[in-house]
Recover the amino acids of this structure.
């Protein structure tokens, strides 16, 4: 993290020439950087932004407000994110309060700001519009926005506190009555589309009742009548918006043929004993699909860590199965599709298909060949679709000619991070160039012996390079014995908070001997840490040589040591690789993965 950049003011914009300059005038003299992500302006918005020396980026691949805000945040460098819309203004009093809070910040704390709206001649202090604080100031690495297409919100982790500032953020939401009505219409359509995709339904009677209740609540119960004629107009337009969004949903559902599987019921199967990369991806997918309103089941062992990780997820039920023959006679409603997430799960899905006729898909996460026995061939041939997480796996599966194949990459996990813990980790290694690795301690897979060899080569040549190794596994004790003479290497074991360690690193090395994709690399990139990895299997799908990292030949400690020295001596290259890698993460978010799987589910039904 760039310690010189304290506050990143971040805006997502499109055609905001009327408001942008006035907004930037209120922050230009005191924030550290201004990040502007434009989604396709055709007016003078970009020229205005450049006049204020903002860092301007463009991304017109609109996937909703939540995703666009996530993209913008990944471009920021500051310790703190200050989110603004172009039609907002920071008052001098609010500026002083923000600077005061940041000078002595509370741990793991974000700050909400009351927003005062100007509406056709007066400030609205009722109608439920005030103070209505919005969370706009928080440590960049602590959280981000959710994926909602409209009405997006900041995700609040369990260990995050939210405190409220006293001074107002001034908001000028509408240029004219026509603008208000037009904007409401757009929001109504986006809301209805999101609900429609979740399988929600409504009636025109419900739309009418919701609209009437909205007016009564705003004008009478929330005392909008005290805001005079502006309060009455605002209540009427809000009631209109409420009717319109439910009416839009009603129109959409009537356009869908009966029986269309907009929200299929999915049964996931993962019979793994532990919790590794495949289980993390299963967890991420189930949580994201829950946001789309799907009913889901998970067939897993009765002691599977997935049960704890997915505790509290809505519309999810567990079915116990400690082996492939168990769990087939559980009582549940009709399942539309089974999704097998690992090898034993594929066998379970085939048996379930034979018993109940339920179609299934499988996800292949490892690059090793499928064992060529009759049962495996039957299981793969009966699958409606095989999903590979990387292009080499997809090419291999396509060569088997057993079932259709598509590619859906794994997702990063947006690991939590506590800046004060990362700072303490750095303090333990003052004046050290800190190199990290994380993974199961299994040399035939992860290649940790190549790191030991590289540490030997570098120990005397560059004494301030230091390696920290995270993870456990069957080769752990042997690794510790082999490296006990090294002063530049430590084995820290498994850590429940890897994000705190990733954020403290100067470099990450990943010399795997085989790797389906390497989703750990995505999590490291998310912390803007440069990467050196093996040019093997699915890793090049993530790490593009000289663009988002450095690739080295597999099983080559000399090449690893040379690459480390190159990045050690070239800070601009390190920073450039890390920034570019961060910018490429949009295709690897949990939301993107879930969207692709959901489209696949629907296409098969």
């Amino acid at each position: 993290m760039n310690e010189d950049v304290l506050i990143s003011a971040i805006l997502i914009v499109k055609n905001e020439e009327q408001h942008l300059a006035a907004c930037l005038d209120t922050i230009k003299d005191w924030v550290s950087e201004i990040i502007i992500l434009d989604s396709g302006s055709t007016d003078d918005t970009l020229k205005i932004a450049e006049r204020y020396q903002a860092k301007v980026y463009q991304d017109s691949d609109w996937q909703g407000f939540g995703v666009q805000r996530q993209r913008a945040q990944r471009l920021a460098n500051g310790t703190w994110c200050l989110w603004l819309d172009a039609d907002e203004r920071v008052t001098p009093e609010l500026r002083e309060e923000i600077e005061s809070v940041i000078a002595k910040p509370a741990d793991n704390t974000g700050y909400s700001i009351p927003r005062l709206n100007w509406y056709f001649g007066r400030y609205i202090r009722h109608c439920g519009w005030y103070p209505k604080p919005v969370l706009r100031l928080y440590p960049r690495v602590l959280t981000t926005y959710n994926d909602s297409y409209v009405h997006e919100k900041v995700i609040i982790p369990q260990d995050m506190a939210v405190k409220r500032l006293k001074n107002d953020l001034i908001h000028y939401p509408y240029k004219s009555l026509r603008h208000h009505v037009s904007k409401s219409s757009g929001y109504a359509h986006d809301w209805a589309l999101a609900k429609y995709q979740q399988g929600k339904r409504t009636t025109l009677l419900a739309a009418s009742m919701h609209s009437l209740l909205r007016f009564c609540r705003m004008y009478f119960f929330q005392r909008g009548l005290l805001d005079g004629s502006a309060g009455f107009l605002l209540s009427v337009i809000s009631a209109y918006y409420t009717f319109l969004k439910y009416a839009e949903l009603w129109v959409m559902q009537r356009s869908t043929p009966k029986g269309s599987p907009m929200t299929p019921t999915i049964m996931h199967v993962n019979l793994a004993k532990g919790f590794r990369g495949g289980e993390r991806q299963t967890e991420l997918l189930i949580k994201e699909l829950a946001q789309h309103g799907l009913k889901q089941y998970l067939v897993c062992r009765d002691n599977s860590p997935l049960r704890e990780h997915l505790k509290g997820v809505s519309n999810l039920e567990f079915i116990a199965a400690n082996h492939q023959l168990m769990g087939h006679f559980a009582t549940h409603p009709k399942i539309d599709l089974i999704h097998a997430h690992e090898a034993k799960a594929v066998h379970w899905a085939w048996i379930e298909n034979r018993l109940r006729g339920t179609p299934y898909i499988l996800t292949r996460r490892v690059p090793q060949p499928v064992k060529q026995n009759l049962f495996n061939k039957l299981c793969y041939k009966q699958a409606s679709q095989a999903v590979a997480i990387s292009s080499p796996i997809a090419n291999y599966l396509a060569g088997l000619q057993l079932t259709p194949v598509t590619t859906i990459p794994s997702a990063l996990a947006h690991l939590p991070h506590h800046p004060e813990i990362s700072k303490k980790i750095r303090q333990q290694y003052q004046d050290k160039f800190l190199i990290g690795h994380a993974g199961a301690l299994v040399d035939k897979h992860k290649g940790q012996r190549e790191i030991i060899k590289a540490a030997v080569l570098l120990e005397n040549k560059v004494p301030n390079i230091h390696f920290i190794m995270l993870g456990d596994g069957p080769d752990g004790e042997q690794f510790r014995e082999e490296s006990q003479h090294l002063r530049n290497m430590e084995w820290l074991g498994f850590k429940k908070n890897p994000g705190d360690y990733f954020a403290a690193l100067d470099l990450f090395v990943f010399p795997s001997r085989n790797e389906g994709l390497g989703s750990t690399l995505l999590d490291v990139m998310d912390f803007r840490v440069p990467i050196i990895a093996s040019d093997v299997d699915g890793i090049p799908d993530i790490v593009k040589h000289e663009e988002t990292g450095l690739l080295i030949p597999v099983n080559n400690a000399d090449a690893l040591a040379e690459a480390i020295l190159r990045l050690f001596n070239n800070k601009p290259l390190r920073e450039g690789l890390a920034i570019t890698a961060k910018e490429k993460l949009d295709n690897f978010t949990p939301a993107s993965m879930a969207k692709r799987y959901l489209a696949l589910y629907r296409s098969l039904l």
